[in-house]
Write a structure and sequence with these properties.
Blueprint lengths: L31 H5 L1 E2 L7 E9 L19 E8 L1 E10 H6 L4 H23 L11 H7 L3 E2 L7 H6 L4 H6 L7 E4 L3 H6 L21 E2 L2 E4 L13 E4 L5 E13 L3 E3 L6 E4 L5 E13 L16 E4 L8 E9 L9 E4 L2 E4 L5 E6 L2 E8 L6 E7 L4 E7 L4
Parallel strand pairs: 1-10, 5-14, 6-8, 15-21
Antiparallel strand pairs: 2-3, 4-13, 6-9, 7-8, 9-14, 10-13, 11-12, 15-18, 16-17, 16-19, 19-20
Length: about 400
């Protein structure tokens, strides 16, 4: 007899598919900088000024019963936090929203918050796409203080991390204690491979600790928000309490159903929300940050840095930028403070201060007691730069 049946292909149009009302995705990742740095009260204007100890008083022994007692001074400096804005607009058709089986807006918002955290970390820690008004990023600041540790051809990671000239000792030399470490994901394998002389693993997971790894007692974090730039560092350690930030405008979400969206370059109108039955999700966030670096007995010149980092196998390219500070008569001014985008060095006896900077444009401020403050700029490209700075004595 004929083998007549209704096959699956015959009834395919009638078979109901099961649709899982969920989207397979990873959990949104937050900003590691905002998690570790010290949060200040919210800003009430675009710029906030902090008073920072700039010069410490001194004490002197008196020579004999009739010796003359000496005087001392103390000084303060201003450090500014400038709020800059992160924002994005997500346009979407109302028809698409109505037809979707899942709440699209509820899916979009957490990912935008993740993107904001990624941008904050990239700009503050690595200097990627940072606003022009912000000070030098943490990595570049550590480099100017000599806190960049090269790995060499055959690296001993135990020595690079915990040795006498390792990243932790560079921070301790500034009078600070490391309270956290940030590592690229590739550092986990390097840490697991470290062994003591008897062959036991040095770094072990701790199920009861705040993080699986610790570096000399400081918790280690391996950011997964895409901000860690492995072309610039393998590992960053520091006293994150010395970094501060303040929020001018917390993350604000607004649904727009009127207005137009223009191309920022051509000014061409891309969408007309009302005419095209669309809405747009607008998210705005404003934040400022600083490294106040107040004077301490171990760093009275404020030239040290509370952060250090382990360079990648191929170190980032920088140029030597030498500032020579002179007075109006052409004499070298030693001990003058030269600040490049907020990072300070003091001039030598020859009046020079040498920075190691990647290509870019930088703001320079030079000052010394008894002289007027001078502001200028410097452009770094593909070669070393030598630049004179002339300080004029106060009346």
């Amino acid at each position: 007899m004929p083998n007549n049946i209704i096959s699956r292909s015959d009834a395919e149009a009638l078979i109901q598919e099961q649709v899982v009302a969920a989207i397979l995705q990873d959990t949104p990742k937050t900003s590691i900088f905002m998690q570790l740095a010290r949060k200040l009260p919210n800003m009430t204007s675009r710029q906030t000024r902090m008073k920072v100890l700039d010069m410490l008083p001194m004490a002197y022994w008196v020579n004999g019963d009739t010796g003359m007692k000496q005087t001392t001074a103390q000084a303060w400096d201003n450090v500014y936090l400038t709020a800059e804005e992160l924002a994005v607009i997500v346009p979407i058709s109302e028809a698409v929203l109505d037809d979707a089986e899942i709440d699209i807006m509820a899916e979009v918002q957490p990912r935008i918050l993740e993107a904001i955290g990624q941008r904050v970390d990239s700009a503050i820690i690595f200097g990627d796409n940072k606003p022009a008004s912000w000070r030098m990023d943490i990595l570049n600041t550590a480099r100017q203080a000599g806190n960049n540790v090269p790995v060499g051809a055959d690296p001993d990671y135990y020595d690079l991390l915990l040795g006498e000239n390792g990243v932790i000792s560079r921070v301790e030399a500034s009078g600070r204690m490391v309270n956290a470490a940030l590592g690229a994901m590739g550092m986990r394998a390097k840490l697991r491979g470290l062994r003591g002389q008897d062959g036991h693993p040095i770094f072990k997971t701790d199920m009861q600790g705040a993080t699986p790894y610790a570096l000399d007692g400081a918790p280690m974090y391996f950011p997964q928000n895409g901000a860690f730039d492995t072309t610039k560092a393998q590992l960053i350690v520091g006293d994150f309490s010395q970094a501060v930030y303040a929020i001018r405008q917390d993350i604000t979400v607004k649904i727009l159903d009127q207005g137009v969206i223009q191309d920022p370059n051509t000014k061409e109108i891309i969408y007309n929300l009302a005419q095209q039955d669309m809405i747009a999700l607008r998210v705005v966030f404003r934040i400022g940050w600083a490294l106040p670096n107040p004077a301490t007995r171990m760093d009275s010149d404020r030239t040290a840095c509370a952060f250090a980092y382990l360079e990648p196998a191929v170190a980032m390219i920088t140029q030597d930028v030498t500032f020579t500070v002179k007075d109006g008569e052409g004499n070298a001014v030693s001990g003058a403070a030269v600040e490049v985008n907020g990072t300070r060095l003091k001039t030598s006896a020859e009046g020079t201060a040498v920075f190691h900077l990647p290509a870019g444009n930088y703001n320079v401020v030079a000052k010394a007691r008894g002289y007027s403050t001078v502001q200028q700029s410097v452009t770094v490209a593909g070669a070393a730069v030598d630049q004179d700075v002339i300080l004029i004595k106060n009346g």
